Amino acid sequence: MNYLLRFVIFGAITLASIGSFNWLVDPYGLYWSPTIHGFNAKKTESSERGRQTKGYRLTAIRPQVLIMGNSRVEMGLSTEHPTFSNRRVYNSGIPGLSLDQQYARTIEQINQNPELKEVYLSLDFLDFLYMDPSVDDGWHPSVAGEFRAINFIFSLDTLTNSVSTIINQQKLANYIDRHGVHIPESYQAILSTEGIRPLFTQKLGSISHQLSNRPLKISADGKHNQGIAMLQYVIDAANAKNITIHLFTNPYHYSYLHTLKDAGYWQKFIEWKILLAHLANKNHLIITDFSGFNKYSLENVDLQQPHKAMNWFWEPAHYRAELGDLMLDELNELAQHGIGRKLSEESIANIITEDNQNVTKSMERWQKLKQALLL
Amino acid sequence: MLFNSVEFLFYFLPLTLILFFTIAARYGKEPAIALLVIASLFFYGWWNPIYLILLVGSMFFNYFLGQAISDSRHNRILLTFGVITNLGFLAYYKYAGFFVTNINVLFDTSWNFGHVFLPLAISFFTFQQIAYLVDSYKGITREYSFLHYLLFVSFFPQLIAGPIVHHKEMLPQFSGAGTYRFNARHFSIGLSIFAIGLFKKTVLADGIAEYANPIFTAADGGQTLDFFTAWGGALCYTFQLYFDFSGYSDMAIGLARMFGIVLPLNFYSPYKAANISEFWRRWHMTLSRFLRDYIYIPLGGNRKGIVHRYKNLFITMLLGGLWHGAGWNFIIWGALHGGYLTLHQLWLRLLDMLGFSGRQSSAYKAFAWLVTFISVVIGWVFFRATTFEGAVNLLQSMLGFNGLSLPNAIYARLGSIEAVLQFFNITSNTQGGAAFVSTWCWILLLTTVSLCLPTTQDIFSRVTNSLDNKSFDTTDAVWPAFAVTKRWVWSPTSRWALLCAMAFVLGLITLGQVSEFLYFQF
């Protein structure tokens, strides 16, 4: 047979084989083609691709309940919680997603998904910090990036990730499940080999570095913040469509809160809560604050047993789904665990006093932990 | 337009090929050449049509000046005028900003030259045309057809990043009637060479690039890097550049071959070289040829004694460095290689004086290869870093000035070896273990590929890959798996069709992440 003809036939076969293989393994959890335990059930390459793939999944699933935020909710809020039973729920939390994109994606779902009934929107302090918070030229939500599913099927990156997905099935590796929840197994791997210390030193060091290098602000005049202004758009959009919106701040380990304080951000943290309290009153809605000191956030870091996981946190910035379940209980008033506080103009003074007292009370404990971590 | 882009592979190339052979069959040679010139100018103008003015103007100027030089029989004034004009344009577009910046630093002035856009490929088409003028002056070549001249300069497979071709190499091929008939054999060979080049560029070069770029960015940004990270970054770039340029050169040769044109060889396994002179006989061979013929030899070459020879070598390499870019790092890189070549000559003299006869032994070759390779890697640090400080920062780390450390994830898994590491003062760091492992796996893989496998010149040696007749050449080089790989010679069999088709498809499925060739910036 003619060489060129063979070249074309072999090329076509190769291309079709790659496409079929990538579709079958589905390393990013885009299509949820048939899953086989030990072969492709754990989408171990999906955790870094949420930005590209979760928008596509939202369109495919059309959830009744949407969870939105950054990596904290992506790992922390389980879609298996009883409050979601018999409803299509999707966790669209994405690591490092800017506030602008979080809200743009939420508004897109509110406007384009007629099935949507409820939104759980997390509020994260660092997302509301700006170099120049006085600039506000209005906001036009737009979701970045056009998604082309074919690019993922016929892609060398996908091919290598398909192979590594198969190889890593038996390993402890992060992955995103079919409901968008990030299962952070790599924490278990790190705990079993390196222990808990690097999880704390790396995270606290990185937050400290991130904050101390830039003079970030919440507000120029104590009243305005671009993030809050964008959030108002989301609230208005949800109200217009009669969609229930649950707003809540994420819990942090006390070491995280002290790192904020050490970097000079405690007053800004308080200022942020005041702005949220105003927002709650203005819109007659509930904003639940989980970012205070309580028995969960004050969980002990046992460096004597470095390979043992903590009960409520993976590391200072990320809470476990066990804590997320308690938060969902409180948000839905199924039970009270003493984690959340309702932010309002009436409650804010007490919350500030409580937080200031607790940060002082836990100072000695923080100093000891810092010494032990060699920070 | 990039060779590794959808618009080139799916629109430009098929359309140009179909039109070329159809027009050649129906209307003959000259209209087909005209079509190829128009296609080449379209290809060039795709980036920015404004660049076309300079390219076309330059071709007009040089063609008619070449005619005048040929007619005048050795008119040195015309030649000097032509060379100065060409270099003047090159100097204006490429070096004026650099020159003014340095004047300002030196004399504390604040001259502003404004921002001059560097026209794509100006270094390549300028050198090619200077060579044409010199060859016209010497009576080596003469072009009677303006259309042929336009194709000689603008032929799209070699226009952007070489090979730098001589007029006398191309003219007979453009004139031959066989070029204008579709030839399935030529096309098969060209497509197969192109497929391998596409694979080298998109899979290998772009694959390793993601491990090189962050390290150089960090070094340029003043970050302190440990020993292994610094070497990882430098070696990754070493292989990125190799497979980028090797891939481009294969693609250029393959594309030209689809049209029935054989280009000169530009790249021949340079990392197998066991001395720096051999390296330069294998890396960017057509540039080395230009520098030798039009700078080194006119400077006196080796005809005026040893001292002059070394001086000429050094000046030639310094200018070679400057040719690559207007920056001190390129000058330092050129000077380094000038120094290397001089040292190598001195070393050979010393060995001769000592009566050393073991230069062909495996041990000596391995040692010589290692020294050569490390020297080349050090040179690439200056070549890639965007600042002098960045290059020095990275080199300091490569020398261990900033300590030796391994990612904690790896360190914690080493068990009893940890004590040995501590003895050598190797500590742990918080960098990612997976990235570290990937970096060194890539380095290991591409070291093996570049040292053990034959290059396309060898693989296609039976079917004339290029105008050079090198094949499986081990002169002054190491080739660890020579006995096994010397049989890997292309023939139009199913096995080769499968391998080349797979390479082509793997290259194709990277098109979503198009990246430019590194040599386009020169």
From TrEMBL, chain A:
It comes from the Bacteria. Keywords: Membrane, Transmembrane, Transmembrane helix. The chain crosses the membrane at residues 7-25. The keyword Transmembrane applies. This is SGNH/GDSL hydrolase family protein.
From TrEMBL, chain B:
The chain crosses the membrane at residues 9-27, 33-65, 77-96, 116-134, 146-165, 313-343, 363-383, 395-414, 434-453, 496-520. It is found in: Cell inner membrane; Cell membrane. It comes from Pseudobowmanella zhangzhouensis. The keyword Transmembrane applies. Its EC number is 2.3.1.-. It is an enzyme of class 2 (transferase). The keyword Kinase does not apply. Pathway: Glycan biosynthesis; alginate biosynthesis. Pfam families: MBOAT. This is Probable alginate O-acetylase. It is a multi-pass membrane protein. Belongs to the membrane-bound acyltransferase family. InterPro entries: Ac/AlaTfrase_AlgI/DltB (IPR024194), AlgI (IPR028362), MB_O-acyltransferase (IPR051085), MBOAT_fam (IPR004299). Keywords: Acyltransferase, Alginate biosynthesis, Cell inner membrane, Cell membrane, Membrane, Transferase, Transmembrane, Transmembrane helix.
